[in-house]
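Q: Trace token order:
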Amino acid sequence: MCGIAGFIMRSGLRPEPELLQRMSAQLGHRGPDDQGIHCSGPVGLAQTRLSIIGLATGHQPMVAEDGQLALAANGEVYNYVELNAALRQHGREARTQSDSETILNAYAVHGLDSLPLLRGMYAFALHDARRGTLILGRDRLGIKPLFYTRLADRIAFASEIKALLAILPQRPEILPRALRQFLQNQFASGEDTLIAGVRRVPAGEALIIDGALRIQRHCYWSALTVTPREVAVDEAQAELDGLMNTAMREHMRADVPFGLFLSGGVDSAVLAAMLHAHGAGRIKSFSVGYKGTAMTHELDEAARVARHFGLDHTPLELSLDQVFGRIPHSIWCADELMRDYACLPTSLLAETAGAELKVVFSGEGGDEVFAGYGRYHPRPAERWVKALIHPGSGGFRTRGQWGARWLRRLLGPDLRAAANADRQPVLRAWGATPASWSDMQRRQYTDLVTALPDNLLVKTDRMLMGFGLEGRVPFLDHRIVEFGLSLPDDLKVRRHRGKWLLKRWAEPRLPPGHLDRPKRGFHVPVGDWLRGEIADQVGQRLMRNRGIRGWFHADAIPDLIAARQRGQGGGRELFGLMQLAIWHRLFIEQPGLKPAPDENPLDWIE
């Protein structure tokens, strides 16, 4: 796991090493073990390294023996052992033990046809000097981030937006439609980010950039190619068993110890079972809960799973002050605004685990792949009404995060003008799906290309990498994703209970009674914190905040606070405004400013 950055200059220009160093300095948390830069022709590459495989020989950027290819990569290619053996048959011998070199060698032999051969989580920049191109590639599910922006004389890229802001010649500007998406969807989705002109490299694609700064898109994978099928339960269960075992064997490849984030839920318990079955031994595990809340029960259940599999377990029982002291730092880590409250305890877990380890396993993706969310199987009447009100969406994700009252009262003219933006990601995804798919498959796909890469995986990557910790997510092995998406609905949901096949397969592997527990989300007690005097103080500061006054009618904020204090809602709206105010300071007003992990969020609003 690493951080990468760099740029390709317009023909005739040469990269400036000092700018590469400036970008690299913003990514030191992603790669505390090593750093390097490489300049050749119009291309400059920078990398900060967290060494996990090939510890002594994996320095980057990597350059091919003939000097014609150079690579800066982030992430892991899990099947590098098998690919290296195949490449040897083509006369391409690996010079290091690093899995990243496999990307370089595979491209040297197969060109862009090498991309479907890679299995893993990765983002990379590869300079092909013979062709005069820079290739920016990203893994199939968007597990690893990669951003780019077009400037007057170059196209620059980086693992995180903050590295791009370090070389922008002007003050960053907010993109109204992306801000509107954050408010209503809790994250901005698609290729746009909140910073105008900064874009995401799409998951499953490579961008080929030439010396004239023209961009050609190359899509090497899409879940839209998955074909629905009918399959018997026993056959599906046997197939799942093979896929899970293969994925776990590959994901366990590392030259450093690894651990596990363990909740009280099914997905992380499955990972604990698989790690145990594959001989991981007494690895470290970590769980989180809150004093005096229902989440204490999650700690108890996680501890039971840890005892069952003989894990070296660390529970974190947090106070509200600990959790909400994470707000400024978690916003800095995330780069992108998203109202996923689970970022806060995840940050504390990452700091604790990162003090001892470089790698943890995490259960992200299980709900999307095996239809674990209740929203994938709504009752028919509810689905019909929502689809009627919101045509073209199948009634999926139709409810905005903000109440209509506060949209009318608070939004300024630029955000009002972007009124249709929040629905577009869902409509685009839903409309792209094949006619042969069921509505459940459409719901899964829509989340796989919106909420998963642009919210859930942002949390996993950025909160962990903020403390130099790599998160591995075996449920998002693309073969498992294709398998889960292809299954008939009745193998995913029965009697309104999701993940039916996964649970049936997992039951004999888990502690007795574990599957009888009701599904719980990763709850964060925001309502217990953002009320009373704290809510009043937040409101007073928001009214004076430059970022808020530029986009909202600040004179309506006292009414929002009053409603909050009366218990009449307003919590999501208030928390979102607070996040925006802090983010605006960190990424618009003072890029380069970095909060400590524990700070009073009120101090960052003004």
About this structure: The two ends are 35 Å apart (CA to CA). The longest strand covers residues 69-77.
